[in-house]
Each structure stands twice: as structure tokens, then as C-alpha cells.
Amino acid sequence: MKAARENSVNVQVSSKIYDIPGTMIEITLLGTGSPIPDPNRAGPATLVRAGGQTFLVDCGRGVLQRAAAIGVAATGLSALLLTHLHSDHIADLGDVVITRWITTFAPDPAPFPIIGPPGTAAVVEATLNAFGPDIGYRIAHHDDLTAPPPVEVHEYTDGPVWDRDGVSIRVAPTDHRPVAPTIGFRIEAGGASVVLAGDTVPCESLDELATGAGALVHTVVRKELIAPLPVQRMKDVCDYHSSVQEAAATATRAGVGTLVLTHYVPTIAPGQEEQWRALAATEFDGRIELGNDLHRVEVTPSG
Ligand SMILES: [Zn+2]
Ligand SMILES: [Zn+2]
Q: What is the pLDDT of residues 93-134, one digit of tens each?
């Protein structure tokens, strides 16, 4: 598991410059929901802007609408990073790829880098096949669209996956079994660092990936609320996610500066944010961030 694994090379990037200082990483929780549709929360997706580059981590339902709300278009993404292939995390994969394609007006666009665990290439290919009729209609109708959406898929389980213009990214395995393989991402720029855990139970490889990071973005499930439900399929949810306290304990073991909670199961009822924060505070002394979609967190080299 130690060697980096990838199935293609020659990543080309068209990065867009934002006014994010090079020494700061900005996290925006685009979607804080879960598989259950929520009128106020888009599906799991987090935007990370670092060193003039913009990374979308997972692409749950509604992601491009949330991104539009902060002025980020599909064409402004440097890469799509996928933690795993559960439906709630990739629900809008087709929308991201197709929308980027039809709104890129420059000729000969660079391929869109998509980085995920093994299995990602097959899912992307199947998605493009599902949109085959649409792709055909648009190529037939628009003279300047002559080829399907250009994408480059890279599959990894461990190791460095990106090193461009001062931004580096590495991945490590997480534990979301029986969903496997799954990965977390560590993004570094200008001395600042952010780790995105995705869905996982506590595990050593995540602890190692997150060691000393400025921020850890972690999905959470309130197990004490979900486990007693009289529905086995809901109880099952607890098996392969971290509770708020478990995510907080991971943050403490790894010595991160800020814990960012997302993917709230069940959804945070109005006025209950402090209850969630208090649960995390039982295991973690640092800054705790949580909130609604578009909640923004700045991470500096000091955390
Ligand atoms: Zn999952
Ligand atoms: Zn999930």
C-alpha cells in the first residue's frame, strides 16, 4: 500500500488565480448533507482553494449551484478529488464533467484531472457513457465541440498525487469498509495544510496523514442518535463512519489545529450547533468549525 499507484500520467492543469494569499488555504463547505435529501443542505462536497488553485473534493448533489454561489464555475476547478465512490459523494459527477465541457469556450481545452481511488476510471467512463446521447447531440449541434469531454483519471491509494506551482497533495488509505478502497487527501500550500478525511472510521493511516495539519475536514454521524433507530439499514450507517467524538479524537491524536465537521447525520436541527460542538469538545481542545452550506474556514501556516 505504500507505493503510489496511478494509471496515467501527464496531468495538465489550467489553474485560475483567486485572491487567496499564498500562505492561506480556504475551505468552503459546499455541501454538508448526506444521502437523505435535505432542503437546506447540498450533498457532500468541499471546495479547497490553495495557492491560486481550486480543488473540489467530492461532488454530491447540488454542488455546482453551491459553487456558483461563491463565484466558482466548473471551468474554474483545477481538479476533482474523490474520497470514495459512494453515491452521495459522486451524485453530480456527470453534471460537473458535462457542465465544464459545455462551458469551456477555449479551443482544445486541457483534460480535467480527476483523482480518486481505484474504480474511479470505470465510474467516470460509465458516467460518460450514460451521457452518450447528450454528448452526441452537442457535438452534432455545435461546430466548435468536436470531441467528448476531455478527462484524465488518476487512481491512487497512497502517496503523492499532485505537485504544481507550490501546491502539493498526497493521499492515504482510510477505512470505510466494506466500501474499499477509500482515500483521504492532504493539501499543502505555502506552509498551510488541510486534510480531508471523507467517510471513515478512525484508523492509523488517517492519523498519519493528518499529523500536524492546520485543519482536518471530517464527515460525522451522531451514532447515539442513529444506532437506536428501529431500522437496521440506519443502524448499519454507524459501522463505517466516525462519530463526532471519534472524529474529534482523531484530530487530537493527529495534533491538528482546527477540526471542521461536515456530512451531518442526522442533519443539524436549528439551534443545535452548540450541542454538536460540545460533543466534539469532549475529545478536542482546538478550534471546531461546523455550520451550514457555504461555511468558510481559513487555514494559515499556524493553523
Ligand atoms: Zn461513504
Ligand atoms: Zn457519505
A: 999 999 999 999 988 899 999 999 999 999 999 999 999 999
Check whether 240 has a pLDDT greater than 70: yes
Residues 6+ positions from 223 with CB-CB distance below 8 Å: 238, 241, 243
- Taking the CA of 179 as reference, the closest ligand is 1
**Residue 88 annotated among the catalytic residues of the structure:** yes
pLDDT reported for residue 23 = 72
Domain interval for residue 292: 25-299
Is the CB of residue 115 less than 8 Å from the CB of residue 81?
Answer: yes
Q: Structure pTM?
A: 0.92
> If you measure from the C-alpha of residue 41 to the centroid of ligand 2, how many angstroms do you get, rounded to a whole number?
13
Say how many Å lie between the CA of residue 108 and the centre of ligand 2.
35
Cβ proximity of 10 and 150 under 8 Å: no
Please give the Cα distance from 107 to 111 (Å, whole number): 12
Query: What residue type is 38 in one-letter code?
Result: D
Q: What is the CATH number of the domain that holds 218?
A: 3.60.15.10
